[in-house]
Write the structure tokens for this entry.
Amino acid sequence: MLNFRADSKVLIQGITQPFGATGAALMKAYGTNVVAGVSPGFGGQTLDEIPVFDMVEGALQAVGKVDATAIFVPPYSVLDAALEAIASGIRLVLIVTEGVPPLDMVSLVKKAEETGTWVIGPSSLGIIVPGKILLGTYPAEFYTPGKVGLIGRSGSLICEIARQLTRAGLGQSLCVCVGGDAIVGSSFVEWLQILNKDESTEAIVLIGEIGGTCEEAAARYIAEAIDKPAIAYVAGQYAPKGKRLGHAGAIITAQLADLGADVGTAESKIAAFKEAKVPVAYRPSQIPDLVKKALKKSGHKAKK
Amino acid sequence: MLNFRADSKVLIQGITQPFGATGAALMKAYGTNVVAGVSPGFGGQTLDEIPVFDMVEGALQAVGKVDATAIFVPPYSVLDAALEAIASGIRLVLIVTEGVPPLDMVSLVKKAEETGTWVIGPSSLGIIVPGKILLGTYPAEFYTPGKVGLIGRSGSLICEIARQLTRAGLGQSLCVCVGGDAIVGSSFVEWLQILNKDESTEAIVLIGEIGGTCEEAAARYIAEAIDKPAIAYVAGQYAPKGKRLGHAGAIITAQLADLGADVGTAESKIAAFKEAKVPVAYRPSQIPDLVKKALKKSGHKAKK
Amino acid sequence: MELLEYQAKELFREMGIPVLPSQRIDHPSDLKGLRIPYPIVLKSQVKAGGRGKAGGVRFVENTIDAVAAAHTIFHLPILGEYPQVLLAESKYDSDQELYLAVVLDKDARRPVLLGSQHGGINAEAALDKIQKVVVDGEFSPFCARQLALKMGLQGELILSVSAIVQSLFQLFVQKDLDMVVINPLGISASGEVMALDGKVTVNDEALGRHPELATLTSKMAKPHKQKETPALPANLNFVDLHGNISIVCNGAGLTMATLDLVGAAGGEPANFLNLGGETWSAATPADLCERLEKALEALAEDKRVKVILVNILGSATTCSATAAVIETHLKRREGAGRPRSPLHFVVRLAGSDLDSAKECLAALKVPLFEALDGAAERAVELAEELNVKTEK
Amino acid sequence: MELLEYQAKELFREMGIPVLPSQRIDHPSDLKGLRIPYPIVLKSQVKAGGRGKAGGVRFVENTIDAVAAAHTIFHLPILGEYPQVLLAESKYDSDQELYLAVVLDKDARRPVLLGSQHGGINAEAALDKIQKVVVDGEFSPFCARQLALKMGLQGELILSVSAIVQSLFQLFVQKDLDMVVINPLGISASGEVMALDGKVTVNDEALGRHPELATLTSKMAKPHKQKETPALPANLNFVDLHGNISIVCNGAGLTMATLDLVGAAGGEPANFLNLGGETWSAATPADLCERLEKALEALAEDKRVKVILVNILGSATTCSATAAVIETHLKRREGAGRPRSPLHFVVRLAGSDLDSAKECLAALKVPLFEALDGAAERAVELAEELNVKTEK
């Protein structure tokens, strides 16, 4: 099970990469307990008061067990960095890097399944518990503490919606970006489970996108297992079919692997949410109102 | 734990190979419950009244769960055949074939460890419980039921010693050939454990050879954990050093992996058995007498 | 990125998958130096499907007919695409045609082996006939035999076809492919197997570690039907459409949301362009600004574009940095004598340092919005106004 | 089977492991067409170690000296072995020399990475300096970095050396090696790494699936020092020694046990030969007989051999079948006018159908034993008797 608290100890792999350094600074500024960085060949240096080690093993020997690692290494080194972290016993692995080859993710996902590791991403902004801890690269200014849990695929869209919620007076309990790539670690369903159990979360917003089937799976799961009010939004309703829209997950083609089933379109996803009786927002600006309504209704229910 | 009884159901992989057909006939003649054979492309045929299937999966669908498989496929197909058997849930895999590449065995041994599979061999005559069941290719005429357990590496030497025991009136409870190759599945130590628990076994004969360190490990294990009398023999006392004596396990070179330790020679192995207070035979013909003495001594002890 | 048939077959040949003797034809006159015996088949090397029905595949018996056929095929567009190359190949008599493929199932997150006894032109239509084996653990040849048996093959064919599937899987893994298909796999009367046509889709993200594939794809001529797209850096995701509003945004999800809002307001996007999020492994705020600058420069050349809607949700990149890029762009074009009215821009910014961005854009008379809906609606309105003007 | 240095370096080059510009020299006159600039190093291509100390490695500055040095090296045996080929290589200035290897730990049943900062001629003597990383799960580049750190490397060297280890491991797995060593790995003042010498041991059992390696090893000339061994099929294990008794047996363990008994009785084996057990995947009883026949034929040519001790423990092969092979052998040689006294054979058989074997051999006056000890003792006695006769 996910072990992630406000005081979780965090490691940064690839801390000497340009974006790794930015990310480390961002997390530290937010108050995250960043205990060490790893960058082979840079062991012994210090970056932003964070000690840098050549390997994860050495870092853990110096600072003790850590709860999570954030990986910023180049795409073709991500699999190795993640396997190194897993071999050292780290069970929460965030991959910020974009452009990891899918077959590397196939290997990593298998290893994660075998070892019970949470892999978030690749191409993920990470997790933020506003006011408490940031694991990843969310811009702090859009987030405020509250009771809405957010699950999405694409970073900037999560930020947009968090910003609109914040402006509407709806703070967030936990936001997670599962990542925009074709093959990602943790799924919508797994995060629905987490948020359903999370005491500070009272409503859940699912930010879907066209491509893949994770929204359809999430809709079914909500109908079956989620008690808290959930609302959904799906980006890409006007997207041209068969075009690549930015990341590989967002291709709609009659993928042979799907054996012709009509899945992955905005229509199919919205239909699945409706089928599961999940209110659907057609534009981001409708989300705050839907959340308010849902909270009122469930509060009403709770009172009964 | 090993699950192998007189009525165990046995599969033959590679049954249409020349030696596979011989082996199948040998086992059937001994009374082994050979339920099916596998040979891709030969599905639907019958060999020696044994139905042949294209895959293990299909065989099991037809004849139900089996307890063991004996593999006779060519060397480069052994890994695949064994993985197929393991994927179908078979947990006792005998590899009769000789000449399996070591790195294939590295992969197979890992998979066996992960799944709790007993892999015997490669290059193994298998297991025989005289008078009850034969899994492998032992010539029946040298064996007779009794109370001596035999563990060895090389088939014909095990036969030689079983023959001498039989002639001296000492029957065998279970004989196993772990296989002569450099890298084998089950070890001396694992079989010592089995024979120590086996109720019909009263004494154990270990038939060692130069090369590797399994005799040294067995000697230590006997000193620590074996209650029954054990005696040992090591072939290769006069073998020229540094020469290849027939199979890869029998090379004595200062293998770098051993980091220079003086192991693997006949002297080192005999010294290890002496250290463990295990009587050592210097020629096969001394073994029956040593077994008789050991049995008398332990019987004497038991009486006290 | 999809390879052409002759490139796919080159990879098949390397893996020991049997293919027919063939020769690449860059020009009809190459047929005079043909090294394979007649009769041959000439095949248009285009990515589009249905080339057989469209006349892109022709059997010929001699050089004169071959040259004539080649001329015809070179001038025959298939779904708007002209071939740069033809493939001349020996003829083959199949008794049976199978379909074989390895694809990545992105939901199961596992490679999948596919196969059917009903191969040929209509194989992909008969999807329900296709058998499937998910490669869940490590691949071993028995997985390929599982597929062969599921396909209903018997006897020697189990071995010969599963050997091909095994090679396909190795190719798939070794070259980081998204998909590899043999269709049809011809089977002769004597049971010989032959890959008669093939399709290989390489994974774009993995191309960097396969220089041999990168060379292939870069050599591939641009299909003629494609309109001139602005010269953009490779890491920008640009999609061309048919309207008059350009959307420039950062992040795939936000780009799609913006596109949706423009669409919902009745607007017609000319194209949209995702500058990328800020998770690009080597990206810095400066990179995002540079990408925006190049994007604006490229889009300015597109005559159809009436309005450029810029929507940047900044993180490390401040609003004022984004505004500064727009300012520089407008001033540079003015300096170069190719001004573009600032009114054609609609800008929406969110993030830090918004006030100075406001000042900067106000000075340029570029309308700035904080709310996304408002920006999208204004862009659509503006495009309509400008359209009316043009029509007048 | 161990490869020669130049062959090992060819494999290194294919894997992208840096090696110096070099050229294979088959004859001193090849040096006139040298394509690499002077000064160069000429290295004797022998398998034996210690060639540097023995004078098999020479630095030369010009063609005249090079040709002279090549002549010298071609005529210089290293531990009795003459080179068939030399390697001409550029000179390299190392600041430091490392030792790197990948071997298979047969007891742990895992590959092991080895490395030391104390490379060069004495690396393998300083075994306690060698660091070890067992590759327990799947290999990933971090395993190579672990080794580099254990070796005490720092900074950039961690990356450059671990990249080499990674390539070595890939080579090890791809080519089914028993061992691959780079010693020394030179490190220049600027931190550049260079494989200056290397050793590759290919696994004989896996050679059949690496035709490219099988070609290399078959091309390798037989070292001169090796005596003419009888022409034997490849699957027989033949070991040459210095005495006068040949031991022909089936199965490695039984062969060694027989050898021990001969040794314990004071005998001196001329050689011993394991016909193989009966677990050979394609073996049938007929195969074992055929192997015995070929073995006897080959051993008959060895003038040193006084006695042939045949010890066959039959399983599917009956005693009478074995006896029949001996009978055929003796009769054939008689017919060919090259008889060998049947007294020179000592035969021990166990298995089914012993009685008819007894009859057959008795008719030939070949002594047959049922007990192994008795057969070994008789073989030694007989050899002594024959020796005494010869000396008279």
